[in-house]
Amino acid sequence: MSQYYIIDFDSTFTQVEALDELARISLKDRLDKEKIFRQIESLTNAAMEGRMSFAESLDARVRLLHADQMHLRQLVKFLKKKVSASFLRNKDFFAANADKILIVSGGFKDFIIPVVTEYHIKKENIYANTFDFDEEGNIIGYDATNPLSQEGGKVTLLKELNLKGEIFGIGDGHSDFQLKESGMVDTFFAFTENVERKGVVAKADFVTPSFDEFLYLNKMPRAISYPKNRIKCLVVGDIGDEALTWMRKEGYNIRIRRTIEEKYLEEAGILFCDEAEQPTAQQLETAGRLKVIGCFGKINNRRVADTACANGIIIFDDPKHNPRNLEFIPKRVIDFMNEGKTHMSCNFPELQPPRVNNAHRLIHIHKNVPGVLVQINNIFAQHNINIVGEFLVTNEHIGYVITDVNKGYDQHILTELKKIEHTIRFRLLY
């Protein structure tokens, strides 16, 4: 059966509402700009949450813009830098499924086409409104005969297209949910990476805090092996908001507690703590999902650092109250989670591998005994898998191997790698 992906643009493909941003560009020199900005944002939210008809909202917003083609060019340049992070990293998906992806938006082709066509999306598969201009290039209105300018326009369009196959809808607003409500899409995914509209989330088949989550749920190839929104970051102690902002931008599931409790530590993939609230060695023995600790201060017990290492848990720490650690610790943790880099860890051997494109990166942590690397490479050889790059470092406790391999291998080799004797942790990074 054919599959189609109906994807919204504003606050889904991009992080922002384009008309709101166009207003900020076109009205920047007006004394009453803040008042108009608030009006436009209010109109946008009213339509997206279903409290106002889309047609009324759109007409009112366009009248407030006072924009021209020069402002549109500025907007396009801005929007290209505001593509949602999870769409950006999954560009390969759009290339592989170009015939199946439709951008359906109540926005305007004038700014949508230049942005999404850079992601292999076909121009003929972009459905949106069009502005009307006067001879000087000023926006004076839009084509009101386009169904996408009207309430329920996405439903009308999908009925006209009459797509045959399984249809997925991905979006953040009420008009996206209407596709499910009307039966025009089989499954609706509320996209919440940029904005979460409670009324839409409550009615969705699935909530997807990232496009990685959508691909994961549907068992499709993706840029990262496991969605970050599924990884819990436990935060305990005096941790500054700036540090948590870094983790939220990455999409991690932040969970804040006063003390380290075993039931929360056992669920966590990441732990942020300070000098006063640190895990014990015994707690680390049962933290089966924990991959990395970021300590805002110094680890005060060498046994904790050694136990973490022996269990495949890396630690980054920094002197207490060092002004840089609000950025330093999150960056080190993110680099490890994204790239496998161990630079400046206090308990892991040092490794900073370069990122390799068009390859998969596998991380293998094992007890520091002879012969493990040979076993890893024998598995790759037996399955005719080409190794693009390989890095091994050790300390007294562990061997840490990163292997970059060509794509296109059978997934069961991952199970074989996990079963190698003396394996502590194994992870497919991307």
TrEMBL record:
Task: Please name the top-level EC class of this enzyme.
Answer: hydrolase
Q: What is its EC number?
A: 3.1.3.3
Q: Known CDD domains for this protein?
A: ACT_3PGDH (cd04901)
An example of a Pfam family matching this protein is: HAD
Which PROSITE patterns does the UniProt record give?
ACT
Name it.
phosphoserine phosphatase
Q: Which residues form the ACT domain?
A: 361-430
Q: For this protein, what reaction is catalysed?
A: O-phospho-D-serine + H2O = D-serine + phosphate; O-phospho-L-serine + H2O = L-serine + phosphate
InterPro entries under this entry?
ACT-like_dom_sf, ACT_dom, AHAS_small-like_ACT, HAD-like_SerB, HAD-like_sf, HAD_sf
The superkingdom of the source organism is: Bacteria
